[in-house]
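Schema walk-through. Below, the input block comes first and the output block second. Nothing else is stored per chain. Lengths vary across the set, and this one has 403 residues.
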Amino acid sequence: MLKNNKINAVIAFVAAVVLWLYVVGQVDPTTTGRITGVPVVFAGEEVLAENELALVDPGNVTVDLTIKGDRSDVRKLVANSDRISVVADVSGLTKGTHEVTLDITVPNAVELQKASIDEITVEIDDLVTKDIAVEVSYDGAFEVSQEAGNVKVDPESIAVTGAASTVQSIDHLSATVGVDELTEKTTVLTKSVTPVDANGNPVNHVKLETNEVRVTASIIASKTLPLKVETTGTPAAGFELGGINAPATVTVSGAPSVLADLTEVKATADVTDLEADATVTLVPDLPSGITVTDPETLEAEISIAGVSSKTWSYAETEIVIDDLPEGYEATIPTQTVKVTVSAEKDTLDNIKKSDLVLHVSAAGLAEGEQEAALTQVSSLDEGSVQIDPQTIRIVLTAITTEE
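--- output ---
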């Protein structure tokens, strides 16, 4: 008897499972489901635009819905909510703040039981268009002393249209370039742009005249080097160069491979016809593609000093004969040499004739009268010396001895 009861129990269990499978597979019972994050679509914005109005960026507005229907239909809709629409019609609104009722549509196979919200607050503002600058940002890290250089953006700005308050919140349009996309050679990249506020947050619900720009850039390095200044030209007559005050170092930038070979920067200052102290723009001598970045303006302070002069006359007896060959004697026929010293007045006042000694070398001269160059020996630290004439007549005579 006990054995029969066990058999009956097993048969009853199997029958129940079969019946349950039948009901699930054939009857498809009614159930409910929850769908979250259904986006709100705004209709009628073209009508606002015709009235020179626009919807202020409403942000990411979504609705959570509870639906009821056959289990299979509910499951399908929960898995893919594309057939559900939530619409906010703003076509008839005027400038200001409004409450707009949501129009929620679900497929006929199910019914809407509940929505997390049934209306939203929107703001309508004047429709404006504004040119906003494009700025390039970089994704990744540059090597030490390197950065992006020679950066150009085309176009440099883009017309943005939208609600006045939304457009005004845009700080710039951001185009992002990956550091690994750049090399020493100039690279041209096509990049999409994103409107962002002053904190770098994206600004939505505006229309851009174009969504792409061309970014031209390369990788450059910077290096600080000593500056060596030379002058070209001469100051005006009666003046001389007093001094140069220029930066000791400059920072240059350009291709890293070119900078590696630079050890100094040479620059020239043109002092032609200067009669007074002046600030002169320096012209650096740099390889192609290398530029001075600091200071922004490369200049030197040029000091110009007025020049005074003194002239002394030297007789032939005041000229020292050097390098006289053995066995010869030398004489200088009567003649006068003028020596003019030019220097700043304070310096010139301390110079005496005895500070300058004229010399002539007899080395290599043959017997007889001939011309030889004059030189001067002095301890002058400043100023210039002119000798007129620059040569003199000298007579070499062999020394004879009487037997």
